[in-house]
Amino acid sequence: MSVFDVRELRLPVVQAPMAGGPSTPELVAAVAGAGGLGFLAAGYRTADEVADLIGRVRARTTEAFGVNVFVPRPVPDPAGAARYRAELAAEAERYGVPLPEPDPADTDDWDAKVRLLTDDPVPVVSFTFGPPPAPVVAALRAAGTCVVVTVTTAAEAREAAALGVAALCVQGPEAGGHRGTFAPAADPGPAPLPALLAAVGAATGLPLIAAGGITTGTGAAAALRAGAVAVQSGTGYLLSPEAGTAPAYRAALTDPAFGSTAVTRAFTGRPARGLRNRFIDEHDASAPAAYPLLHHLTRPLRAAAAAAGDPHGMSLWAGTGHRDARPEPAAEVTRRLAGG
């Protein structure tokens, strides 16, 4: 049984899995067709929805692709989520939506997703927010799947490597979206991506995929020189026509009014980097470490803001290189990143 090897990509470019809509089957297939590795995001979807997305990718390409899964972890501060819910009453009134009562036992349909991916394997499965249980890694490997784990420190890398995974996605603080720390309440480390690649490489010797602020060919080349076998970009694809990026989100990415990014727990309870907006300014200081309760709590607010075209109520995830993102077809973005 031949297992996919990230070192054998025609172009050493990985399209990051972006939960919440941007990672469409069209985007995944376009990146794969160009010679890179496209990723579906299983986060916040049921196993049945993921199965449908996989089928849609397979209908568009015979090239290898991946599926990313969030590893469920205990909620560090559920009481804090209740306090935060009271704070968000004014936001609910602003957007005319009710606030839900999130379930602390929610696992994001973990068991069913694992069954799906072992019974009907895809070439690559990556995990974020922690190491998957050893039996899950073993089952996926037995099914012929390349298993990748996202890490943010050398210690996390050693823990993941001990499971027998094939590669690591090394995520620096420059990355847009959630930082994939194993501990939900952990603050992301400040070590820049090149230093993190060196530390993780020395700790494990596994193939490394570099992630964090990479939106140009020059940035990609620098990460490859620093020891990565491939680079991962999410922000670089947000403006591509194949991406499912909401209109107000697209507009904000090129709006000079949104000139900086910030790391915040305000939307989900986990550290995540996005364009700085009103919601972050007003709620970041009081947001508890209560993922995924805050994600579910703010979800209707973010949806209502998107529907109203109001970027100041949305989670506009973006890395530090967002100003270099271009409205190009995904295949062109892939080739441009590889061309550096």
Concise structural overview:
Belongs to the nitronate monooxygenase family. NMO class I subfamily. The chain contains 13 helices and eleven strands.
The N- and C-terminal alpha carbons lie at a distance of: 34 Å
CATH class of the largest domain: Alpha Beta
- Stretches where pLDDT is under 50 for at least 5 consecutive residues are none
Order of helices and strands: EHEHEHHHEHEHEEHEHEHEEHHH
Q: Judging from the principal axes of the Cα atoms, what is the shape?
A: globular
The tally of strands reads: 11
Rounded Rg: 19 Å
- CATH H-tier superfamily of the largest domain: Aldolase class I
| Main β-sheet description | 8 strands, parallel
Mean pLDDT figure: 97
Give the tally of structural domains.
2
Helical percent range?
A: 25-40%
User: How big a fraction of the residues is strand?
Assistant: 5-15%
Question: Spatial order of the strands in the main sheet?
Answer: 1-9-8-6-5-4-3-2
| Assembly state | single chain
At the fold tier of CATH, the topology name of the largest domain is: TIM Barrel
The CATH architecture category of the largest domain equals Alpha-Beta Barrel
Determine the number of helices (DSSP H or I, runs of at least 4 residues).
13
Structural class: alpha/beta
Describe the overall structure.
By secondary structure, the chain is of the alpha/beta class. The protein folds into two domains: 6-72 and 107-245 and 326-338, TIM Barrel; 77-106 and 259-315, no CATH class. The protein has 13 helices and eleven strands. The chain has helices spanning 25-34, 47-58, 78-87, 89-95, 110-119, 134-142, 154-161, 193-204, 217-225, 247-253, 278-283, 293-307, 330-338; strands at residues 13-15, 38-41, 65-70, 124-128, 146-151, 167-171, 177-178, 208-211, 230-233, 261-264, 272-275. The strands form two sheets. It has an eight-stranded parallel sheet with strand order 1-9-8-6-5-4-3-2. A three-stranded antiparallel sheet has the order 7-11-10, with no helix packed on it. The chain is globular. It starts with 12 loop residues before the first strand and ends with a helix. The model has no long low-confidence stretch (mean pLDDT 97). Pfam families: NMO. This is Propionate 3-nitronate monooxygenase. InterPro entries: Aldolase_TIM, NMO.
